[in-house]
């Protein structure tokens, strides 16, 4: 073990203190500075083989007892060192056993680069502490501990148009109710129980989707707000997909009906029914808000003017549909309703027949929807069955029924059809109600099929989520192993430096 070469210093001598020794630096400039600082008169320090100076002759800022490390977040980690080391600019400056004038009292100036880094580190540490304090304050403001506190926080916030909130002793329910023709339907619901666990249901089934991140529990009001926003976006996306599906199905039905109507059909009644069904499907493709007349409840149905709904109107009846006086809106005697209730016309054949005669076809009457008299030149196609009698007078009808009682249903039905305003001169056996029932049955089948497809898709999504959870667990294990390797590498690097 070496000894200190400074005059009058007993460091590491038999009767002296045990101290840490440092060799002279190898750099010629710094080595000469150390030799001038020692000032030994009896021995030339330059001739010594390995001179050493103990730690008692260095200032505290020149001694390194700890090691620091700054991570990517700006946090400085400090750890004690096993052996004391010197800074690169250290030199002997304290000589306690020598005269005071020998000691060098000059102070070392901090380098600009080190000063800049130190200032940046201090500012960064200050910003981190302020951010952490603001985060803790915000967490305390939005944090909830039980269901009652969550309900009170939700009630303090403004209500959203999309959601309806219901609170009880055991749970908090936030649901969206979809309006329907008969009974309202609960489309989606978010349920928070007493232990603050969360469940999301879409059409009475648990919601499983990658678009919605469902937390295990709600300990923060902002978590519930983010969940409601994501569920609302999911419902809007589902609504758009549903509209696209219905539109695609209706377009397919329309294309099939076009193919059927283009063929040469000998059964006029079947042709009328198919054309009517086609027109109804076209109406289904229209937007629900594209109404023809004003649906405002403030407009009186009796007189068509604006006044209170509960007041008894004594004005002259006026229809806002046909803009005529004498009857109220949606009255059975309204020409527009009679025109819409009848089967649609087939003007193509008549127009083609008249164009062959070298004349332009005349349009239908806008008020009654009946064809002009000139269209009678076109003869209707003969059917295979027996022809129906023309409109009979009461006396002639009774004579016909008495002569042949089996013709009574045909005569009554024929006279009833003749009394109804129609756009065709031939009989239509398909009424509006029957066609609408057919459409509703078709749509119910399509709806049941789409629900089955959605259930299958939900099952597939659940399987995908399970596989995804397994993959996430494996990734988490790999990350943990990688972090452990990094920590071991840093420990080994610190040991090698020491």
Automatic annotation (TrEMBL):
Where is the sequence biased in composition, kind Polar residues? Answer: 367-377, 418-429
Output the SUPFAM superfamilies linked to this UniProt entry.
Glucocorticoid receptor-like (DNA-binding domain)
Show the coiled coil region(s).
114-141, 436-495
List keywords of the entry alphabetically: Cell cycle, Coiled coil, DNA-binding, Metal-binding, Nucleus, Transcription, Transcription regulation, Zinc, Zinc-finger
Alphabetical list of InterPro entries matching this protein? THAP1/10 (IPR026516), THAP_Znf (IPR006612), THAP_Znf_sf (IPR038441)
Name the Pfam families on file.
THAP
Q: Does the keyword Protein transport apply?
A: no
Signal peptide limits = none
Q: Which residues form the THAP-type domain?
A: 1-95
Q: Which GO terms describe its molecular function?
A: sequence-specific DNA binding; zinc ion binding
A GO CC term attached to the entry: nucleoplasm
Classify the source by domain of life: Eukaryota
Q: Where in the cell is it found?
A: Nucleus, Nucleoplasm
Q: Where is this region: Disordered?
A: 340-429
| Family statement drawn from the similarity comment of this UniProt entry | Belongs to the THAP1 family.
Name by which UniProt lists this protein: THAP-type domain-containing protein
What organism does the UniProt record list as the source? Answer: Rhipicephalus sanguineus
């Amino acid at each position: 073990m070496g000894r200190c070469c400074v005059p009058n210093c007993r460091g590491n001598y038999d009767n002296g203190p045990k101290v840490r020794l440092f060799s002279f630096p190898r750099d010629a400039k710094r080595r000469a500075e150390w030799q001038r600082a020692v000032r030994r008169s009896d021995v030339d320090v330059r001739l010594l083989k390995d001179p050493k100076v103990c730690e008692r002759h260095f200032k505290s800022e020149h001694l390194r007892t700890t090691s620091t490390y700054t991570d990517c977040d700006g946090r400085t980690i400090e750890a004690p060192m096993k052996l004391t080391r010197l800074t690169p600019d250290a030199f002997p400056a304290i000589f306690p056993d020598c005269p005071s004038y020998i000691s060098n009292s000059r102070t070392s100036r901090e380098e600009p680069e080190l000063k800049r880094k130190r200032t940046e580190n201090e500012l960064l540490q200050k910003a981190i502490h302020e951010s952490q304090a603001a985060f803790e304050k915000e967490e305390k403001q939005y944090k909830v501990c039980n269901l009652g506190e969550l309900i009170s926080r939700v009630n303090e916030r403004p209500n959203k148009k999309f959601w309806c909130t219901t609170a009880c002793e055991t749970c908090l329910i936030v649901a969206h109710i979809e309006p329907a023709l008969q009974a309202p339907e609960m489309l989606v619901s978010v349920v928070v129980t007493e232990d603050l666990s969360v469940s999301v249901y879409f059409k009475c089934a648990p919601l499983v989707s990658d678009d919605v991140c469902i937390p295990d529990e709600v300990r923060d009001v902002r978590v519930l707000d983010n969940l409601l926003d994501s569920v609302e976006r999911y419902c809007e996306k589902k609504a758009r997909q549903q509209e696209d599906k219905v539109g695609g199905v209706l377009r397919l039905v329309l294309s099939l009906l076009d193919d059927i109507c283009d063929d040469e059909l000998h059964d006029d009644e079947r042709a009328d029914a198919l054309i009517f069904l086609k027109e109804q499907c076209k109406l289904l493709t229209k937007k629900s808000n594209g109404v023809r007349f004003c649906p405002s409840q403030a407009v009186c149905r009796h007189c068509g003017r604006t006044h209170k709904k509960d007041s008894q109107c004594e004005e002259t009846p006026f229809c806002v549909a046909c803009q005529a006086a004498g009857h109220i809106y949606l009255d059975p005697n309204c020409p527009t309703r009679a025109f819409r209730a009848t089967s649609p016309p087939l003007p193509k054949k008549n127009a083609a027949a008249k164009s062959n005669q070298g004349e332009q076809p005349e349009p239908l009457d806008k008020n009654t929807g009946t064809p002009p008299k000139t269209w009678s030149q076109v003869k209707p196609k003969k059917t295979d069955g027996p022809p129906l009698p023309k409109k009979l007078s009461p006396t002639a009808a009774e004579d016909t029924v008495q002569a042949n009682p089996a013709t009574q249903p045909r005569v009554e039905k024929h006279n009833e059809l003749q009394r109804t305003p129609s756009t065709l001169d031939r009989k239509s056996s398909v009424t509006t109600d029957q066609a609408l029932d057919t459409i509703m049955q078709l749509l119910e089948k399509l709806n049941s099929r789409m629900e089955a497809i959605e259930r299958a898709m939900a099952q597939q999504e659940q399987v995908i989520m399970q596989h995804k959870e397994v993959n996430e667990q494996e990734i988490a294990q790999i990350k943990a192993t990688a972090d452990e390797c990094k920590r071991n590498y840093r420990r080994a690097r610190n040991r090698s430096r020491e």
